[in-house]
Structures are given as C-alpha cells and as structure tokens.
Specification:
alpha+beta; four-stranded antiparallel sheet; 2 domains; binds zinc ion; single chain
Length: 321
C-alpha cells in the first residue's frame, strides 16, 4: 500500500504553478477493471457533461492519495504547454531516459526523472508556456540524434513525447499523462522523482529548484530544424465522391476519420468504434492501408461492422463492402 498525506493548500498551489496549463483533467479508475486496465475518464459535470475544472482542492486530493488525476499538455487557446514529458516503458527505458537527460544537460536544459510502473517519465519544466510544436521539434530531433526510438512513424516501441500534437482544434483534448506524485491505481504505488525525499513537499521543493526552459533558448535549439518527416501529421486527401458498380456511393473510411500519422504502409487514426467506448485516446488503433484504403483494421480488435456502425454507415450485407 501507499502512504497517505495531508498536504497544505500552498503545496497544491505550487503543483498547479508547475504543471497545470489547462484546467480540464481526467480521473483514473479507482481500481483496475476486470481486464487489468486502469483507464482515465475525463472529469465531467454529471448533468451538463461540461468538463470539470482543476483547482487546488482536486490537486490536494491527488497529492494526498485519495484520487489520481492526469493532465493535458496543451491549452487549445494558446497551443502551448507548461512542460514536456517523455514517457518510456520499453526494455531499457530508464537507460534511454538517462541518456536523454544527459544530452539535454549538454544544452543547459535540466530535466527531472520520475519513476513509473514500467520505466519512467522525464519532465522538462518551462519558465513560461511553450509552443507545443516547438517542444516536439526539439525532443524528436534530440532523440533521433541519440538513436533513441520514438513511438509512431512505423515504430511500435519507443518513447512517447507529450505534447503529442502540434495544434489542437476547438473541442479537442489531445493526450494526457498521469500527473506526477500521485498513486498509480494499477499497481497501488506512488512513483517519485529520483532526486528528492519521498514526500510531496520535498519533491515539489526539488521541482521548484529545477532550472526552467525559456522560450528564447528553445527557439535557439530548434533553429533550422523540422519535425522528422515520418512523424509529421497527415492530412487526408480531399473528398471526391466515387460511384461503385452497384450505383451507390462507395464507402471511404478516409472521409470519416482524421488521420494522426503515416508510415510506409499505413495511415493511422483513432478507431471510431474504440472512440465511442472512450478508448484509443492516443488515436492510433486504426490502420488504413495507404495503397488501398478499402482495407483497414483496428488493432484493438473492433470488427469492420462495429467500425461502420460507429460512423453511422452500417454495412448492408447485400452490397459489396
Ligand atoms: Zn477499435
């Protein structure tokens, strides 16, 4: 079991200053589901379904160990994030994070390493919120230079970089990561930053002392750099209706989903059927063949029938699918 704490409002406000840039948040299931997952649910008002807003009271409950929350990286009004978090959970994850931490230090950038259930999270804190797109250019190029694998772009294993998007449209949330210093409901453990005593107060004092990345420095680091080609977001081709042999319009999956990335064989998107069930928050369960987009598959196992039904385009079995 994990220790409970009773932190002050000031401690919670410290945490807000360091980590909270967007007030929407998620709450982790209080215990794992029968299938072992412990998913997060967007905190919403019961009646209006409007997202609830994070405040020091909720953060106190998180730090005390009563609930566990996650944080969205990007504020859609500014397209900025207060932090960059690098998540690694593969074999050799901690070594890769130490390597990144060392390389960052060569640029004069401090990064704080937090343990996680299967690896770690490396956090870079910002002096003022930074453009998500610029954070991503910096970290992707750094990882590429070190040969640290980055998930996506054809790789199933590698680090994940939050913010995971360059921009958010209105109403989008992007990806969220477990807020530091809370209890992971799957393992019932707290994970701490390596370089401080194991109380919320000492951990926050340590994080307050970590040097913050400035926008000016970030702009210098990425001068002349782009996001590596394989990781650029893909925009689907514009829609041109086609008529099939049956005389009805052929169903085209790309008219219905927004692709998030592309590799040599597939376009990837959030699976509509998973999305309906509140799953696939990373938006890459659905693979659509580049060569022939009539072939698509959900890696979480949704059937073609379920995907079509979720899009309001059910398969009628007397017609070619
Ligand atoms: Zn699915």
């Amino acid at each position: 079991m994990y220790p409970h704490f009773c932190v002050s409002r000031e401690t919670a406000e410290d945490f807000m200053r360091l980590f909270v840039n967007r007030l929407a948040y998620g709450i982790q299931a209080s215990k794992p589901l029968p299938d072992g997952r412990a998913p997060y649910y967007l905190a919403q008002d019961w009646y209006t379904k409007e997202p609830k807003l994070l405040d020091a009271g909720v953060v106190r409950m998180h730090l005390n160990g009563d609930i566990t929350i996650n944080l969205y990286a990007i504020n859609p009004r500014t397209q900025r994030s207060k932090w960059v978090a690098i998540d690694a959970d593969f074999d050799g994850a901690v070594e890769a994070l130490f390597q990144l931490q060392w390389e960052l230090r060569q640029d004069g950038v401090d990064a704080a390493l937090e343990q996680s259930r299967r690896g770690g999270h490396l956090w870079i804190l910002a002096r003022t919120p930074l453009l998500a797109s610029e954070c991503r250019i910096y970290i992707y190029n750094l990882a590429l230079r070190l040969g640290v694998p980055v998930k996506g772009g054809g790789l199933k294993e590698g680090i994940e970089v939050f913010p995971k998007q360059d921009h958010l449209e209105d109403g989008e949330y992007g990806n969220a990561i477990r807020a530091p210093l809370g209890v992971h409901r799957k393992s019932n453990r707290r994970y701490w930053f390596y370089e401080a005593e194991l109380t919320p107060e000492s951990q926050l004092a340590y994080l307050n002392g970590v040097k913050k990345l400035t926008e000016e420095d970030l702009k210098t680091f990425i001068q002349g750099m782009n996001l590596p080609e394989a990781y650029k977001p893909v925009v689907a081709a514009p829609y041109t209706p086609r008529v099939s042999f049956a005389g009805s319009q052929e169903f085209r999956i790309l008219d219905y989903v927004r692709t998030t990335r592309k590799d040599s064989r597939n376009l990837w998107a959030r699976c509509p059927s998973c999305a309906q069930a509140g799953r696939d928050r990373s938006g890459d369960n659905l693979a659509i063949q580049v060569k022939d987009p009539r072939f698509y598959k959900c890696w979480a196992g949704c059937s073609k029938e379920e995907i079509r039904a979720a899009l309001g385009q059910p398969i009628r079995h007397n017609q070619p699918v």
